[in-house]
Amino acid sequence: MPGKPKLHYFNGRGRMESIRWLLAAAGVEFEESFLETKDDLTKLQKDGSLMFQQVPMVEIDGMKMVQTRAILGYIAAKYNLYGKDLKERALIDMYVEAIIDLNELLMTHAFQPADKKEQHLATIVDKATNRYFPVYEKVLKDHGQDFLVGNRFSRADVQLLETLLMAEECKPDILAKFPLLQSFKARISNIPTIKKFLQPGSQRKAPLQEKDVPKLMKIFH
């Protein structure tokens, strides 16, 4: 029996959080090794564990995988969360790439200087409600199924739910004009593996706080 996947990252969300979400959604138990200091990162770099000298890194199936999108693609394919054919996979990829664009904006909010925070939040809300959410609302309406692609659960559903919840942390009423996304959120949140991941005490990480930023800067800079 191969061991559990082992995730190497700091003890917070960042780019590893989508990987945690996808493993949890697939019902896969995983271990985490947290970077606490710059030395922890340097050790991984020096022992050849990091192909491009950076994390996230996931040990899985005898590989030390880096690059977030590559890791997510591997997990999705391995656990049958990547559609039934090439066309479905292409749709999933298109939806996911846009989700990642919005996710990156949300992720960097805590790092904004105080005088830029308000404008940054306004940008998030504008792009979420005018560019991204209307597309997913229309997809759900036109498709008429419980899931974004085909009629089966995929990585696109997992990653959209993660990002919807992050957007609500920034602005609790951000989904007010999107009834289908609201029902999608409720439906996907009730899938047993995801419901478990959303419970207190799971390996899901809390939002990054301003007080955490200096510690991260010491590890990565």
From TrEMBL:
PANTHER family xref list: GLUTATHIONE S-TRANSFERASE, GLUTATHIONE S-TRANSFERASE A1
SUPFAM superfamilies associated with the record: GST C-terminal domain-like, Thioredoxin-like
Presence of keyword Transferase: yes
Alphabetical keyword list: Transferase
Organism: Halcyon senegalensis
MF (Gene Ontology): glutathione transferase activity
PROSITE patterns: GST_CTER (PS50405), GST_NTER (PS50404)
Family that this chain belongs to: Belongs to the GST superfamily. Alpha family.
Protein name, UniProt field: glutathione transferase
Taxonomy, superkingdom: Eukaryota
Residue span(s) of domain GST N-terminal: 3-83
UniProt-listed Enzyme Commission number(s): 2.5.1.18
InterPro entries (UniProt xref): Glutathione-S-Trfase_C-like, Glutathione-S-Trfase_C_sf, Glutathione_S-Trfase, Glutathione_S-Trfase_N, GST_alpha, GST_C, GST_superfamily, Thioredoxin-like_sf
